[in-house]
């Protein structure tokens, strides 16, 4: 009986006792450098959002509210994307093309943050708090563009790779039938 326990214990309990990693960096979706850049994006967009929330007076509130929307969205969704890409949770979500989603999101946030920062810089009360908020907005913009650039350098544009796979004309069934001349 002791020998069967030893055999079963070595094959079953080791697999059950393995703990799952909650952080997978680097992975097929996120390299170490991009992980660091995404952490910086989260921190800078959070600081920009908090600083914007502290602004108490505004003469024209439209640019402030647009900056608030963009910085809050960037903070929350980048944090969510970071958690999903750096953990096994991305395997449980029904998304098959994480690189395309990540590339599209990062590109959109880079341009939105740039637009929000430019608009808020052009129309604010010129207080030191508002100027600091704009500065963090531009720093977050630079981080998103750095992420975008690094993604392009390492992986290229993911939409093109998936939509236009290289075709191998030598092994298509039609050509094989034509080449066999009906000898099959």
From TrEMBL:
Its main location: membrane. Residues 162-177 have a biased composition (Basic and acidic residues). This is MARVEL domain-containing protein. It is a multi-pass membrane protein. The chain crosses the membrane at residues 35-52, 64-89, 101-122, 134-152. It is found in: Membrane. The keyword Membrane applies. Residues 29-156 form the MARVEL domain. It holds the Pfam family MARVEL. GO terms for cellular component: membrane. Coiled coil: none annotated. It comes from the Eukaryota. Keywords: Membrane, Transmembrane, Transmembrane helix. Residues 162-184 are annotated as: Disordered. The keyword Ligase does not apply.
């Amino acid at each position: 009986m002791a020998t069967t326990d030893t055999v079963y214990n070595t094959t079953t309990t080791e697999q059950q006792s393995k703990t799952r990693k909650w952080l997978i960096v680097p992975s097929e979706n996120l390299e170490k450098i991009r992980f660091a850049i995404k952490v910086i994006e989260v921190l800078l967009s959070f600081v920009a959002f908090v600083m914007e929330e502290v602004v108490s007076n505004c003469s024209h509130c439209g640019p402030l509210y647009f900056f608030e929307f963009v910085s809050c969205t960037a903070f929350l969704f980048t944090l969510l994307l970071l958690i999903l890409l750096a953990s096994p949770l991305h395997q449980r979500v029904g998304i098959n093309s994480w690189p395309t989603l990540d590339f599209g999101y990062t590109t959109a946030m880079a341009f939105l943050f740039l637009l929000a920062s430019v608009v808020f810089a052009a129309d604010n009360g010129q207080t030191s708090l508002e100027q600091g908020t704009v500065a963090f907005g531009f720093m977050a913009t630079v981080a998103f563009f750095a992420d975008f650039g690094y993604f392009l350098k390492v992986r290229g544009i993911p939409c093109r790779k998936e939509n236009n796979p290289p075709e191998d004309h030598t092994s298509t069934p039609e050509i094989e039938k034509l080449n066999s001349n009906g000898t099959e």
